[in-house]
Design brief:
Helix 1 (13-24) packs parallel to helix 10 and helix 3 (47-60) runs parallel beside helix 7 (184-194). The chain has 472 residues and is an alpha/beta fold. The protein has helices at 13-24, 40-44, 47-60, 66-69, 81-105, 164-169, 184-194, 215-227, 279-282, 319-333, 362-368, 383-388, 416-428, 433-438, 448-458, and strands at residues 2-9, 29-33, 109-119, 122-127, 132-142, 146-148, 161-162, 177-180, 200-204, 231-234, 238-243, 249-253, 258-261, 263-266, 270-272, 306-308, 347-349, 355-359, 372-378, 394-400, 406-412. The strands form 5 sheets. A 5-stranded mixed barrel has the order 1-2-3-4-5. It has a 5-stranded parallel sheet with strand order 7-14-8-9-10. 46% of the residues are buried. Bound molecules: flavin-adenine dinucleotide. Flavin-adenine dinucleotide binds at residues 9-15, 32-35, 40-42, 46-47, 50-51, 114-115, 143-146, 164, 185, 273, 276-277, 310-312, 317-320, 322, 348, 350.
Amino acid sequence: MEHYNLVVIGSGPAGRRAAIQAAKLGKSVLVVENRLRLGGVSVHTGTIPSKTLRETVLNLSGWRERGFYGLAYRVKKDIEGKDLGARLRMTLDYEIEVLEHQFARNGVRTFGGMARFTDANHITVIDHAGDDHAFSFDFAVIAVGTAPYRPANIPFNDHSVLDSDSLVTEPRVPRSLTVVGAGVIGMEYATIFSALDVPVTLIEPKENYLDFIDREIIEEFTHDLRKRGMTIRLGAKVDRVELDEQGWAIAILTDGRRVRSDMLLYAAGRVGATANLGLDACGVVPDDRGRLKVDPATFQTQIPNIYAAGDVIGFPSLASTSMEQGRIAALHAFGAAMPPAPQFFPYGIYAVPEISTIGLTEQQVRAAGTPYECGVARFRETSRGHIMGLQSGMMKMIFALDTRKLLGVHIVGEGATELIHIGQAVLNLGGTLDYFVENTFNYPTLAEAYKIAALDAWNRMPRTTPIAPLAE
Ligand SMILES: Cc1cc2nc3c(=O)[nH]c(=O)nc-3n(C[C@H](O)[C@H](O)[C@H](O)COP(=O)(O)OP(=O)(O)OC[C@H]3O[C@@H](n4cnc5c(N)ncnc54)[C@H](O)[C@@H]3O)c2cc1C
């Protein structure tokens, strides 16, 4: 039986980073992946395909140019599913190649098949031909991710009623789209298709959505979506979905209303992919959604030599955070030094328009009773915004009144997920409002919004210096 210092189950962002980190510490590492190709949900059905689809839609539809050339402007007329699929496959192939090369370079062994535990130091893997292979290990990292939640009252057929996996398998542009679930995934796809001028209805059982985002940013975002004609039905619960004689989906809501569309995307939750892992055999206990509980500092499960990282442990369920969790798990397993984790990480929502945020929301600051001041900048106040023809987009910054420290940055609009990293650096380094006021920013850039928002807050902050900044 082959023995490894570390066995990693799943080759998504968490598994990949855990494996590479352990290999860099000189350990023998085996990665088991049940898909035919490496990369996990992130590469095959999650992060990479959705972002590629988004980029393709924005490019082909001429979305970014419409501010100047009008709503009817298109780079390509009659955008079809095959236009979306072609770029998707190219990006996917490239991502997998990079990953395979990274594993090979670092001496990480990979094995294709479904892994299950036989005890706390052994797994068996059923390969794609149906044969069993046993391996022993000192440590394991469970990085099996999640799968879309598919309730029985939804007649999934992968053509008119889909989940986020089947949506990207053979993408098509529907005549109309209903999205059930206004979480990150639902919101991203709803707005991507809306950018293609597909009529979209979004259905969400709660009265608000994306409730971890600052409310002012959500108000701006919602205004943008309604202006584009998207129908947003909050507080509306789907009772069941039926198909009509044309094969169109009819969502029947609990209040009796019906929403008919060519395509329905069910994006209301995901479950941990732990059902077939044989967890009873190793002593790790999942919750009722298949998720695993870990020590948040070390990522150890209840069984000390078995770690879990990535989406399988729940919030925040991001590729970015999954990578970091995998790395920390490997460092801890092999007793390597772990620098303290930064206090805040950024959150990116690749809707159209993008949202990105770091630190505390105004609601959180207020709840904590911290005296604060906000500064706001609109992208149309920047020269770069004019050049780009931006009609919307805003940045909001929150500062502590007493220490002047930055507490949070919240952005909606073009480039939000890139811009946020300036705020991240200042926030995690404990910087203050004065950093933004005193430093020179490239001109013309959207990043100037930082200076404008900081000056906006400065106007209302207690004066600490006799030298006033130049008014913008
Ligand atoms: C539509 C969508 C869009 C997203 N967009 C973003 C984004 O823009 N930015 C971002 O940061 N995050 C995004 N995410 C989230 C991101 O994809 C996940 O956070 C990330 O993929 C989680 O990584 P992971 O390492 O937990 O494993 P995953 O990527 O989930 O991969 C786990 C792998 O393990 C395999 N596996 C499962 N069980 C076994 C077993 N028993 N044996 C062997 N292999 C097994 C699975 O088949 C899978 O390939 C998105 C997700 C979705 C669905």
